[in-house]
Amino acid sequence: MLEQEIIKRLITAALDAREKSYAPYSSFMVGAAVYTENGQIYSGCNVENSSYGAANCAERTAIYKAVSEGHRNIKAVAVVAGMKFEKTVYTSPCGICRQVIAEFGDDDTYIIMAVSPDEYKIVTLNELLPYSFDFNSYK
Ligand code: THU
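^ thats the input. predicted complex w/ tetrahydrodeoxyuridine below
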């Protein structure tokens, strides 16, 4: 299980990252933070585009930051989201992000859906993405 202190640090990092959200089209501001195997935290926000399909979710921004710094094993992901100027709401990662978490995590990777450092729900990736596709298993 994750220590309380780590959970709170991840949620705080996700809340800070959410402040940087670039969401002029949806106004849905999202922040995420990932906890790597060696205990580092990387955070990110959603980054939208006038060509809507080019948007990148906060979870993937955070994961790609970790991977591009050499950290490929993800133990936990925290996500906080909500409409601009409104309270945050429990939000679970989209399908594409679940697949990306599967690439760098495992069945037991924790997904922390938070509204504040004291209010959160934790599930595992296996609960969100059972029977996930893993090309490595065919090699
Ligand atoms: N979004 C995320 O960043 N993460 C999620 O888990 C759900 C959706 C973003 C994508 C887009 O910028 C906005 O939220 C509305 O879909």
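The CA atoms of residues 11 and 92 lie 14 Å apart.
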